[in-house]
């Protein structure tokens, strides 16, 4: 049975387990720091880097402000180019549409281009329930699938695995799903890549149906864009007879000139390259070249819910580069699985609650999965203010009454701070009783993972008055 994040524990429980995995922490730390360093070098070489970020944010905001208009134009252009557009309100509807389209071809095995949206909606499990095998062809996604694992990063899904682990997975699992790994396979990267190439080539040449996502959809021509590093995606996009692309409604950009801005940002942020080795574009169908049938499934699945949030809607600017994860101290220590979603790290901490709503037990704790250090704000190519959204989502949790003790305590502190004389007395009293307080005070939910800091016996104001008052 295909694994999914359905039923995954909430972040506090999952993170407590993951931080105890030393090998995982080492794998994640090594990978994120490598990518982070390469990104910093390539960003610094562009004198217009900040202007590119400004432009990208403005383009995305313009799209979100007129999303319906842009989507209708996409539908018009794709249809005119020989494609068929389907609309899906949620995961169940998207899965039903894709399953029915595959069934209509009579095929029982398909190939896939790495797609976070299909992971989000659980498409592989839905196809499996219908007797259809979906084989991943992106190398990292294939490693995850062969290992009966789940993705832990939006760009490098197998980032939590090292070479020795990958060799073991290939040797054990490849033969069960097609061409086996060669005898004597080592963990040399060239050998691992060759084993994957031979195994996946068999899938490419035999598949009649391919499912893809898309990094962008250009509204002015109805063109879809996939950016990748290996060329496996292009094999899927061109060799299959039927291509089904499952795309979130927020992936639209108005024009090719707008696309240029994002292509200058994406690879630099995602993998530390000036440009991805493969940027594939396709528009509908063309006689004698590529798939004979093309279907575009435009998926909402909570995106209009996020769009209605005046602070949170900026999360829909995201271009899935992973830069926020590579700089996040929480992600570096917990890895991606702790977030219980294909979207981990800072973007997962805000996007998952926005898509699923505040009452989802799996995502309700995610706005607290952050130190609020702001490092993610500094690297985001589309200028998402993660800390603003996190604080707003935390306020929504507090306003929902789910933490009455914490809320009462903060209301009390707020009332004291509004009255200078009372606040001055409280600070003085804290200095006197501080040494008597236990390390953990009895506030369930608030102090479970927090130790009370040492309270100085003298406030700064009193120290200043005693030492500097005569000079002021």
Automatic annotation (TrEMBL):
<keyword id="KW-0677">Repeat</keyword>
<keyword id="KW-0408">Iron</keyword>
<dbReference type="InterPro" id="IPR017900">
    <property type="entry name" value="4Fe4S_Fe_S_CS"/>
</dbReference>
<dbReference type="InterPro" id="IPR024185">
    <property type="entry name" value="FTHF_cligase-like_sf"/>
</dbReference>
<dbReference type="InterPro" id="IPR003741">
    <property type="entry name" value="LUD_dom"/>
</dbReference>
<dbReference type="Pfam" id="PF13183">
    <property type="entry name" value="Fer4_8"/>
</dbReference>
<keyword id="KW-0479">Metal-binding</keyword>
<keyword id="KW-0411">Iron-sulfur</keyword>
<keyword id="KW-0249">Electron transport</keyword>
<dbReference type="InterPro" id="IPR024569">
    <property type="entry name" value="LutB_C"/>
</dbReference>
<dbReference type="InterPro" id="IPR004452">
    <property type="entry name" value="LutB/LldF"/>
</dbReference>
<dbReference type="InterPro" id="IPR017896">
    <property type="entry name" value="4Fe4S_Fe-S-bd"/>
</dbReference>
<feature type="domain" description="4Fe-4S ferredoxin-type">
    <location>
        <begin position="308"/>
        <end position="338"/>
    </location>
</feature>
<dbReference type="Pfam" id="PF02589">
    <property type="entry name" value="LUD_dom"/>
</dbReference>
<keyword id="KW-0813">Transport</keyword>
<dbReference type="GO" id="GO:0046872">
    <property type="term" value="F:metal ion binding"/>
</dbReference>
<dbReference type="GO" id="GO:0051539">
    <property type="term" value="F:4 iron, 4 sulfur cluster binding"/>
</dbReference>
<dbReference type="InterPro" id="IPR037171">
    <property type="entry name" value="NagB/RpiA_transferase-like"/>
</dbReference>
<keyword id="KW-0004">4Fe-4S</keyword>
<dbReference type="InterPro" id="IPR009051">
    <property type="entry name" value="Helical_ferredxn"/>
</dbReference>
<dbReference type="GO" id="GO:0006089">
    <property type="term" value="P:lactate metabolic process"/>
</dbReference>
<protein>
    <submittedName>
        <fullName>Putative iron-sulfur protein</fullName>
    </submittedName>
</protein>
<dbReference type="Pfam" id="PF11870">
    <property type="entry name" value="LutB_C"/>
</dbReference>
């Amino acid at each position: 049975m295909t694994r999914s994040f359905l039923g995954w524990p909430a972040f506090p429980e999952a993170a407590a387990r993951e931080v105890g995995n030393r090998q995982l922490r080492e794998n994640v730390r090594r990978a994120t720091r490598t990518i982070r360093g390469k990104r910093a070098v390539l960003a610094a070489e562009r004198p217009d880097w900040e202007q590119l970020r400004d432009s990208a944010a403005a383009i995305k905001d313009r799209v979100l402000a007129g999303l319906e208009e842009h989507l209708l134009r996409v539908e018009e252009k794709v249809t005119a180019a020989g494609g068929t557009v389907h609309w899906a309100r949620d995961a169940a509807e998207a899965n039903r549409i894709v399953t029915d389209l595959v069934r209509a071809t009579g095929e029982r095995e398909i190939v896939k281009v790495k797609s976070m949206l299909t992971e989000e909606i659980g498409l592989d499990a839905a196809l499996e329930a219908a007797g259809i095998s979906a084989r991943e062809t992106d190398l990292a996604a294939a490693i995850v699938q062969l290992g009966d694992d789940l993705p832990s990063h939006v760009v490098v899904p197998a980032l939590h695995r090292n070479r020795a682990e990958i060799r073991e997975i290939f040797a054990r699992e490849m033969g069960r799903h097609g061409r086996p790994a060669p005898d004597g396979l080592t963990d040399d990267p060239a050998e691992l890549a060759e084993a994957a190439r031979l195994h996946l080539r068999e899938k490419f040449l035999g598949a009649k149906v391919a499912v893809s996502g898309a990094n962008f959809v250009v509204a002015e021509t109805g063109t879809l864009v996939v950016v990748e590093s290996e060329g496996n995606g292009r094999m899927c996009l061109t060799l299959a007879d039927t291509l089904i692309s499952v795309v979130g409604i927020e992936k639209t950009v108005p024009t090719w000139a707008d696309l240029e801005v994002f292509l200058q940002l994406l690879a630099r942020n995602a993998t530390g390259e000036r440009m991805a080795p493969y940027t594939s574009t396709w528009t509908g169908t063309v006689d004698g070249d590529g798939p004979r049938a093309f279907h575009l499934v435009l998926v909402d699945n909570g995106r209009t819910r996020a769009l209605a949030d005046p602070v949170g809607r900026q999360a829909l600017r995201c271009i899935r580069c992973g830069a926020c994860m590579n700089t996040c101290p929480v992600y570096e220590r917990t890895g991606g699985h702790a977030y219980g979603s294909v979207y981990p790290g800072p973007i997962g901490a805000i996007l998952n609650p926005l898509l699923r709503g505040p009452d989802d037990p799996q995502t309700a704790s995610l706005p607290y999965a952050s130190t609020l250090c702001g490092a993610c704000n500094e690297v985001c190519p589309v200028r998402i203010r993660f800390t603003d959204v996190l604080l707003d989502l935390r306020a929504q949790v507090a306003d929902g009454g789910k933490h009455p003790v914490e809320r009462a305590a903060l209301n009390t502190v707020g009332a004291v701070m509004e009255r200078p004389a009372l606040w001055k007395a409280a600070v003085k009293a804290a200095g006197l009783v501080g040494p008597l307080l236990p390390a953990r005070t009895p506030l369930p939910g608030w102090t479970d993972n927090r130790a009370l800091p040492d309270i100085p016996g003298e406030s700064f104001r009193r120290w200043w008055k005693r030492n500097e008052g005569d000079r002021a």
